Amino acid sequence: MKTLYISDIENRIGEEVELFGWVYRQREHGGVVFVVLRDSTGIVQISIHKNNVNPDSFNNAQKVTIESSVRVKGKVIEDSRAPTGLEIRCSEFEILSLSEKFPIQEGAGKEFLLDVRHLALRSIRLTEIMKIKELIIQGARKYLQKNDWHEVFPPIITSAACEGGTTLFSIDYYGREAYLSQSAQLYLETAIYSLEKVYSLTPSFRAEKSKTRRHLSEYQHLELEAAWMDADDIMKVEEELVAAMCREVSEYKNLEKFGRKKEEMILNLPLERIKYDEAIQIIQSKGIDIEWGDDFGYEEEKVLTNEFEEPFFVYNYPMEAKVFYMKQNPDGKTYACADLLAPKGFGEIIGGSQREDDLKALERRMEIEGIDKSRYKWYLDLRRYGSVVHSGFGLGIERLLMWICNLEHIRDACLYPRTITRLEP
RNA sequence: GCCGCCAUAGCUCAGUUAGGUAGAGCAUCCGGCUGUUAACCGGACGGUCGUCGGUUCAAAUCCGGCUGGCGGCGCCA
Question: What is the pLDDT at residue A161?
Answer without folding.
Answer: 54
